[in-house]
Amino acid sequence: MTETNGPALWASALPRPTAETHKHSRGRLGVVSGPPLRTGAARLAARAGLRIGAGLVKVFCPPDAAMVLAPALEAVMLDVFNDPLDLERLSEPMDAVVIGPAAGVDEATVLNIAALERTGAALVLDADALTVFQGRVDQLALGLDRDDVATPHAGEFERLFPGLLAQKGREDAARQAADVLGCIVVLKGDRTVIAAPDGRVRINDGAAPWLATAGSGDVLAGMIGGLLAQSMDSFEAASAAVWLHAEAARRFGPGLIAEDLPDRLPPLIAQRLDAAPGDA
Ligand SMILES: NC(=O)C1=CN([C@@H]2O[C@H](COP(=O)(O)OP(=O)(O)OC[C@H]3O[C@@H](n4cnc5c(N)ncnc54)[C@H](OP(=O)(O)O)[C@@H]3O)[C@@H](O)[C@H]2O)[C@@H](O)CC1
Ligand SMILES: Nc1ncnc2c1ncn2[C@@H]1O[C@H](COP(=O)(O)OP(=O)(O)O)[C@@H](O)[C@H]1O
Question: Which listed ligand is nearest to 194 at the C-alpha?
């Protein structure tokens, strides 16, 4: 089944805190940072995760990145991991974790992903966390499940599934990838395709080309992670995040940079919550 993505499909599932909510129960999101010269991507994702409503967001970084990150974070928290086992321990209490943006295309990233897969956290895999599995997509699929979301752009998709896009087109290629990986696949682009392993597909039309700017995908990964952390179903979380991300960019228009996106989310979310049928 193929649908056009829009708020009618998921607005009533958007998370909403209640009087009993505290920051931990609202949803804990982890974001794995790269090395000292490449921390910006994780910071973008973390801020987006907070803005979309996760109660607590922590960046996990290698030891030498800590002194770069510490002065650059406020509400977002920070923890240092020395090795994959450390990352596993820190991620255990998290509801969702984002890994990939500027993580590094190396074996350390593969081991870190394996560590995260041993926790109960839902995962968002983006950028380097996908590229690193070039030529070994079966290994990637082994650790993923329906709660997880992979967010390739066309270049990353091609690295994982060579020739599939040209052979099948974006919609069927994304559907097949979701089936093979066993997780939600968000094939990014001007018409982003959101595919589930059960064959359902949503097409997000009308995104603004102003989104073609470095770091906008990192923000999207954080938004999806933030919704997953709040226990939103992975297909709905991916659909909602893709639509809100595109809408924020459309409203901003020329001059958009990735940093602008997270802070544009609150009025959009408020509007969708107000419009959701059946909500108080
Ligand atoms: N602020 C930060 O810290 C940021 C850090 N970032 C981090 O930097 C790291 C490397 O990022 P990156 O952009 O160099 O890697 P990637 O996107 O794979 O491009 C490599 C080649 O792939 C292709 N290609 C790219 N996009 C394509 C598409 N849509 N459709 C088709 N092809 C596409 C394109 O090939 P070309 O078209 O030039 O032949 C391009 O030259 C990574 O860790 C990332 O997370 C970024 O998130 C930005 C903000
Ligand atoms: N021409 C375009 N029109 C609409 N959206 C676009 C366009 N180009 C890119 N995007 C969107 O911008 C984001 C770019 O993500 P990505 O390529 O991962 O960038 P980065 O790695 O720099 O964060 C995706 O959400 C994608 O759908």
Answer: 2
Query: Residue 227 Cα, ligand 1 centroid: separation in angstroms?
Result: 24
Structural domains in the chain (count): 1
Helix (H, G, I), strand (E, B) or coil at 61: strand
Ligand number, closest to the Cα atom of 241: 2
CATH number, domain of 129, equals 3.40.1190.20
Q: How much distance in Å is there from the Cα of 181 to the middle of ligand 2?
A: 22
Would the CA dihedral through 124, 126, 128, 130 be positive or negative? positive
| SS3 of residue 108 by DSSP | helix
Domain assignment present for residue 80? The answer is: yes
Q: Would the pTM count as exceeding 0.95? A: yes
Q: Confirm whether 130 is domain-assigned.
A: yes
Q: Other C-beta atoms within 10 Å of 135: how many?
A: 10
Task: Give tens-digit pLDDT for 169-226.
Answer: 999 999 999 999 999 999 999 999 999 999 999 999 988 899 999 999 999 999 999 9
pLDDT (tens digit, 9 = 90+) per residue, 243-276?
Answer: 999 999 999 999 999 999 999 999 999 999 988 6
Binding positions = 41, 153, 188-192, 217-218
> What is the Å distance from ligand 1's center to 128 Cα?
9
Residue type, 263: D
Give the range of the structural domain holding residue 29, as residue numbers without chain letter. Answer: 21-275
